[in-house]
């Protein structure tokens, strides 16, 4: 491979086409052997796991639920940049580019092996991906060099080869996506029937005044998880193993679960990453089997302290045994949400829901394993600096007016929500510009595990104002004004909004 170097544009085009071939082939093979092994997703998932905690917290705060889109876009930009670089360094010879493909292929294989949720067959995806990329790169280089000799025939050959690679990559990528969509999960979901939820009790929200609706529609329910691609599991393939410090080990199928006593309970879930005033709090009517029933059947040994739960994608959480065993706690192995089978993003076929504890210690989605053990065994988030135990802190939020809103001066309605799961909300107060606290009117209490809405009518003089709220729970605890960050066990402080009246 000596002769004249390739032109820049041709060298870059070859490299980009080879990268497309690698991604397309990898995605297609992954769809067959193990969807999460798609090179793109495997690298993204590894990036998520390796990202230092402060950056992750920043991404969740700044981009919210779009954080994964931002990651995927960022990865696309980086990959495109690498492809251009690979082309530019390979103008004289194909070798630098081939070495780059080998290195990234090796990294892909290593990333796949390092993921606890991917089986051995998953290695086929990055391996085929690297092979396709290398082969296309080498081949197109040869064709381009021949066409570089200037004959019209040579140029035509290069265009045909390049076009074939582009079309083949697109077909492989689309084929992979179609295969992924036809994995039977939707069919499996629609085979599960869940009764419609009861009507929302009268007076449970003040949605007309600007509070959220008492129940959060599934599509609006907040979502927080470490999965770049939602794990897709058919209920027929699902098993739950209950083991560790138990009298007898259990393995339950989905049908076993459906045959058990089912309990329905409306529960407000909250994420520990929720900033004061943040959006990661939602309410749904869940249906499932009390975790207590299953634990009693397995027989909990003396000395067991936590139930260590694992999801199909290798995420782990630890929930205190005494919480799960408390009879009136309604901790559930949930399979129904707001009258539907659990949506895939919320953990289909089965997830945990535990009233009163932040989600990361109590709400494992795509649940497959419950191990009774002692505290001290670190979970996914504990390893990243979050607390071992995390009861939800009493909080309140102003939903109307929105921050920096311009509102008419005079009489105005301030409305919001407050929660103190398992304890109950007794009082919410608001004040303007640090003045006297005024009581807000509370919505009907549905149960102690759900949020309560509130509103108050205030008189606002023209000008800028700071409105604050604070809740008092049934234990008599009034929210502290002291601001602490979300790490390690949940934020505190009063929510405040600035607005301008005129
Ligand atoms: N498998 C799995 N389960 C998980 C998580 C996760 O990342 N993976 N995140 C937890 C966290 S931090 C929260 S707050 C809740 C969020 O549940 P949702 O996405 O249904 O609202 O799920 C919990 N269960
Ligand atoms: Mo969370």
UniProtKB/TrEMBL annotation:
<feature type="transmembrane region" description="Helical">
    <location>
        <begin position="158"/>
        <end position="181"/>
    </location>
</feature>
<feature type="transmembrane region" description="Helical">
    <location>
        <begin position="69"/>
        <end position="88"/>
    </location>
</feature>
<feature type="domain" description="Oxidoreductase molybdopterin-binding">
    <location>
        <begin position="229"/>
        <end position="381"/>
    </location>
</feature>
<keyword id="KW-1133">Transmembrane helix</keyword>
<dbReference type="GO" id="GO:0020037">
    <property type="term" value="F:heme binding"/>
</dbReference>
<keyword id="KW-0812">Transmembrane</keyword>
<dbReference type="InterPro" id="IPR014756">
    <property type="entry name" value="Ig_E-set"/>
</dbReference>
<dbReference type="GO" id="GO:0006790">
    <property type="term" value="P:sulfur compound metabolic process"/>
</dbReference>
<keyword id="KW-0472">Membrane</keyword>
<dbReference type="InterPro" id="IPR036374">
    <property type="entry name" value="OxRdtase_Mopterin-bd_sf"/>
</dbReference>
<feature type="transmembrane region" description="Helical">
    <location>
        <begin position="120"/>
        <end position="138"/>
    </location>
</feature>
<dbReference type="Pfam" id="PF00174">
    <property type="entry name" value="Oxidored_molyb"/>
</dbReference>
<protein>
    <submittedName>
        <fullName>DMSO/TMAO reductase YedYZ molybdopterin-dependent catalytic subunit</fullName>
    </submittedName>
</protein>
<dbReference type="InterPro" id="IPR008335">
    <property type="entry name" value="Mopterin_OxRdtase_euk"/>
</dbReference>
<dbReference type="InterPro" id="IPR000572">
    <property type="entry name" value="OxRdtase_Mopterin-bd_dom"/>
</dbReference>
<dbReference type="GO" id="GO:0008482">
    <property type="term" value="F:sulfite oxidase activity"/>
</dbReference>
<feature type="transmembrane region" description="Helical">
    <location>
        <begin position="95"/>
        <end position="114"/>
    </location>
</feature>
<dbReference type="GO" id="GO:0043546">
    <property type="term" value="F:molybdopterin cofactor binding"/>
</dbReference>
């Amino acid at each position: 491979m000596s002769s004249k170097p390739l032109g820049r544009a041709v060298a870059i085009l070859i490299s980009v086409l080879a990268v497309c071939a690698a991604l397309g082939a990898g995605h297609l093979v992954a769809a067959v052997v193990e969807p999460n092994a798609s090179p793109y997703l495997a690298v993204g998932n590894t990036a998520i796991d390796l990202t230092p905690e402060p950056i992750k917290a920043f991404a969740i705060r700044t981009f919210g639920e779009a954080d994964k889109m931002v990651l995927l876009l960022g990865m696309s930009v980086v990959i495109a940049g690498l492809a251009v670089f690979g082309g530019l360094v390979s103008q004289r010879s194909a070798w630098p580019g081939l070495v780059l493909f080998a290195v990234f292929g090796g990294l892909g294989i290593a990333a796949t092996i390092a993921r606890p949720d991917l089986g051995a067959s998953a290695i086929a995806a990055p391996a085929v991906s690297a092979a396709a990329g290398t082969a296309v790169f080498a081949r197109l280089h040869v064709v381009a060099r021949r066409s570089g000799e200037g004959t019209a025939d040579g140029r035509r050959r290069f265009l045909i080869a390049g076009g074939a690679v582009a079309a083949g990559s697109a077909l492989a990528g689309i084929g992979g996506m179609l295969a992924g969509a036809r994995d039977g999960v939707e069919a499996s979901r629609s085979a599960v029937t869940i009764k419609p939820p009861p009507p929302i009790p009268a007076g449970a929200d003040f949605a007309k005044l600007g509070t959220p609706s008492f129940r959060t529609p599934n599509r609006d329910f907040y979502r927080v998880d470490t999965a770049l691609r939602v794990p897709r599991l058919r209920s027929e393939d699902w098993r739950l193993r209950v083991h560790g410090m138990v009298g007898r080990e259990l393995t339950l199928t989905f049908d076993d679960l459906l045959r058990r006593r089912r309990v329905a309970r409306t529960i407000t879930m909250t994420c520990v990453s929720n900033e004061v005033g943040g959006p990661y709090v939602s309410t749904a009517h869940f249906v499932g089997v009390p975790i207590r029933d299953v634990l009693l059947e397995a027989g909990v040994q003396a000395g067991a302290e936590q139930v260590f739960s694992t999801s199909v994608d290798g995420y782990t959480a630890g929930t205190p045994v005494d919480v799960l065993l408390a009879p009136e706690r309604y901790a559930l192995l949930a399979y129904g949400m707001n009258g539907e089978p659990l949506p895939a993003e919320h953990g289909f076929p089965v997830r945990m829901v535990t009233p009163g504890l932040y989600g990361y210690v109590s709400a494992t989605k795509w649940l497959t394993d419950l191990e009774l053990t002692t505290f001290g065994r670190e979970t996914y988030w504990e390893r990243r600096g979050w607390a071992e135990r995390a009861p939800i802190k009493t909080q309140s939020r102003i939903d109307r007016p929105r921050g920096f809103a311009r509102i008419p001066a005079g009489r105005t309605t301030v409305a919001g929500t407050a929660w103190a799961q398992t304890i109950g909300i007794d009082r919410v107060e608001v004040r303007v510009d640090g003045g006297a606290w005024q009581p807000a009117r509370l919505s009907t209490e549905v149960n102690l595990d759900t949020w309560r809405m509130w509103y108050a009518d205030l008189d606002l003089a023209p000008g800028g104002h700071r409105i604050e709220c604070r809740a008092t729970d049934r234990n008599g605890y009034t929210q502290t004004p002291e601001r602490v960050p979300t790490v390690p066990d949940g934020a505190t402080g009063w929510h405040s909004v600035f607005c301008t009246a005129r």
